[in-house]
Amino acid sequence: MIRLDAVTKRYPGQDAPAVDGLTLSVREGEIVVLLGPSGCGKTTTLRLINRLIEPTEGRIFLDGEDVTRVNPDELRRRIGYVIQQVGLFPHMTIAGNIGLIPRTLGWDKKRVGARVDELLDLVGLDPGTFRGRYPKELSGGQQQRVGVARALAADPPAMLMDEPFGAIDPITRERLQDAFLELQARIGKTIVLVTHDLTEALKLGDRIAMLGERARLVQYDTPAAILAEPADEFVASFVGAGAAMRRLRLVEVGSIELVPVEAVGAVSTSVRADQSLYEALDAMLRAGDEGAVVLDEDGRPAGAVSWSAIVRETPHAGGAPSAGPPLTRAPNGESGRR
Ligand SMILES: Nc1ncnc2c1ncn2[C@@H]1O[C@H](COP(=O)(O)OP(=O)(O)OP(=O)(O)O)[C@@H](O)[C@H]1O
């Protein structure tokens, strides 16, 4: 869907390129997170995709089409763009802000109005309450939702998001991230999102592109794989000491080999098969149990999970687990919540 082919960006007057020969493919409908230290070229990479910045070398494709040959205004209508500062026009109402692109596309008033209401609904803001307000009359989190609604106005197939939840307090941020994942489950856009927050990357990314200096692609993999098998010391140090604990949040209880209920003795703890190992462990610790009964969709015991089984499933100094079913990513929202 989006493909960068040996893309280089040299800013005028800079010795080293900000992006040096980056090749990266993003599949249709997936969220790819660009993650890396400050100054490694994440924002530059993102802006190259919608041509807010022109590449020095290389090519970028959207749906197989070379974007460097497309009129930039037309291109930006096909790619929604969400930034941290939201960038709403202060003198325009919320409806005015969201309807901006549809109006420039020449939609009639009625169609714009209907689209604005539909989008406000979609991002969880009551149209009657918010349509006529001005940006300064909204909280930071509400403005953020309007920013997303505006980016989606012309129903673009792709969306670029630059630290979209960066300037928001941690609790609101988590709520917005959950709402964003629920929204994405419905709209299935192709999304490239920039963050330097590992927790956010692990939660939101279908895949994470770990970037080093000059946007060198160090590792490109699922969150679980990045935690379990960091490609090198740089990734390992970025992922940090909590990798094994973080990974517990990404593995569903039902994806590991369960033991018979009798094997865990008399325990009072039960968890659903679609909860994460992290949640299972948390429940076990709170109850002082060494195991938990695992319930299937109908609430019937499907087996049990034990403390030792969780330890076996977690990569450790003795090596990653070799047997057992592949890692399953816990569904976002519910059990993937951080
Ligand atoms: N307009 C510019 N002119 C010259 N150099 C620039 C310009 N914009 C960015 N740079 C440089 O390019 C490099 C990459 O910057 P970029 O903003 O893409 O990094 P980033 O990974 O998004 O950083 P952060 O996480 O701190 O936002 C940096 O060294 C930066 O100083």
UniProtKB/TrEMBL annotation:
Q: Where is the composition biased (Low complexity)?
A: 317-326
The answer, when asked if Nucleotide-binding is one of the entry's keywords, is yes
Give the enzyme's main class according to its UniProt record, as a single word.
Answer: translocase
GO MF annotation list: ABC-type quaternary ammonium compound transporting activity; ATP binding; ATP hydrolysis activity
CBS domain segment(s)? 264-322
> Which UniProt keywords are given for this protein, alphabetically ordered?
ATP-binding, CBS domain, Nucleotide-binding, Transport
Domain of life according to the entry: Bacteria
What InterPro entries would the database entry show? AAA+_ATPase, ABC_transporter-like_ATP-bd, ABC_transporter-like_CS, CBS_dom, CBS_dom_sf, P-loop_NTPase
Tell me its EC number(s), please.
7.6.2.9
Region of interest (Disordered), ranges: 314-338
Residue ranges annotated for the ABC transporter domain, each copy included: 2-239
Checking SUPFAM superfamilies in the record gives: CBS-domain pair (SSF54631), P-loop containing nucleoside triphosphate hydrolases (SSF52540)
PANTHER family to which the protein is assigned, alphabetical: OSMOPROTECTANT IMPORT ATP-BINDING PROTEIN OSMV (PTHR43117)
Family statement drawn from the similarity comment of this UniProt entry: Belongs to the ABC transporter superfamily.
Name it: ABC-type quaternary amine transporter
What is the species listed in this Swiss-Prot or TrEMBL entry? Actinomadura montaniterrae
Top-down, what is the taxonomic lineage of the species of origin?
Answer: Bacteria, Bacillati, Actinomycetota, Actinomycetes, Streptosporangiales
